[in-house]
């Protein structure tokens, strides 16, 4: 059993109930510990509050130095980090190595973003200076999802600390081991006591933390369902900052294409990478009802059937690993069945590869005949195909979702992309490129049920600090002329 919590610089055992994490490709237990109870959540918030004045009073450069020391730890331990992420999520090792690399890359990008978007500026005005500076919010909670248990919480934590906030991390209950390692690396980097705290646990721990009066903000990445609950919980607290990064039901439209093989490749990278467990994954594929559409779909079906699925460390490496759990795999098979029940036609059926694991084959399903398609995010390797004859109708259907995270258009025709771009509603809009693999050097976020206009990645700096505008002069002075009606003797 692990001393699973890190509060005020101490590793502690939780006093809540026990929980475990598994290697989803084998079912083996790889971590067990106890969750934080409400008192321990309280202690974590108190530790972060106590640490806040010292941390926020350090200079920007001093905080950056500290965060760079964390980057050194990440670099030294990148292999261990990638292995741990692979073991706990089921993602292939080649892929988790890219996650570890993204975590390291996040440091310099966040420093640059903070300086550019929230740094200090001043300009001269009559007898004074107009000054803009930024201050941290104070104590913030970071909630992470399981699909990128390192990179995505890291994408909130690093900019939050650079801005001068102190943090309480509540990772996904599916990935406590990765969180533990990440916080150990912060500890090794010499971060002052209380600046980062870790509370592990399931939903109850999340509820206790999100409801805590001592928070000044909450940065969340996870499902739209949980994000909506948090939004309701934060209603009536206008002074607390809430950043929500949630799911999507992302459309990808195939238009006029000449390179079918490239379109097939980019579609696979859009829909099946990480076994479909990325928020940006394509979920609905619009294919024209013509010969090119038929040929594209046949080649796509052939290539998807050939996708290698396997264990994280298999050689040769698989493209798709296990889903996060057997329950998630069963959920995808159930979602597929619900679509079949309402008139969908399977082109490639998801099948379980090994009972007791999250290993499943990829699915492709034609939902063109379904009258009312559920607007749901199926968080796994199931791509829904919709055949279309009229581009305007395809764009209308693409927009017929409560979500608005990513959207794509494959076409050789720039004018038609422009036409699509002007009409589509999403925070990420790609042309002839996969929907996944967004850059940390750009803002990242969605609209509608996908987010609340607090884009993360490069723009995370914006929600980590608030602007303070001032007019400053070194001495008091009288103006050259007084306002009408004023007399000073
Ligand atoms: N937009 C993005 O940047 C982005 C990135 C990755 C994942 N996601 C989305 O995340 C989802 C998958 O992640 P997940 O299943 O881990 O998400 P989740 O919503 O189940 O969990 C996210 C976090 O919230 C906590 N939580 C759950 N219920 C809670 C409650 N009632 N109160 C407080 N906290 C609670 C969890 O313990 C976890 O730490 C998908 O929908 C995916 O699209 C979005
Ligand atoms: O699952 C959701 C994240 C998907 C991932 N997005 C990013 O990495 C955004 C960049 C960042 O946060 O630094 C993707 O697009 O694949």
Provide a compact summary of the structure.
With 489 residues, the chain is α/β, with parallel strands linked by helices. The protein is 38% helix and 21% strand. The chain contains 14 helices and 21 strands.
Task: Write up what this structure looks like.
- It is a single chain.
- This protein has helices at 38-57, 60-76, 78-89, 93-118, 151-163, 176-188, 203-210, 224-234, 260-271, 291-305, 326-341, 391-398, 414-423, 460-464; strands at residues 5-7, 10-12, 18-22, 29-34, 121-125, 128-136, 139-143, 166-170, 196-198, 217-221, 241-245, 250-254, 282-288, 345-348, 363-366, 382-388, 406-410, 428-431, 443-444, 456-457, 465-472.
- By secondary structure, the protein is α/β, with parallel strands linked by helices.
- The strands form six sheets. It has a seven-stranded mixed β-sheet, sandwiched between helices.
- It contains 14 helices and 21 strands.
- The protein folds into two domains: 5-247 and 450-472, Aldehyde Dehydrogenase, Chain A, domain 1 (3-Layer(aba) Sandwich); 251-431, Aldehyde Dehydrogenase, Chain A, domain 2 (3-Layer(aba) Sandwich).
- The protein is globular, with a radius of gyration of 25 Å.
- 38% of the residues lie in helices and 21% in strands.
- A hairpin with a 2-residue loop joins β1 and β2.
- α2 packs antiparallel against α4 (93-118).
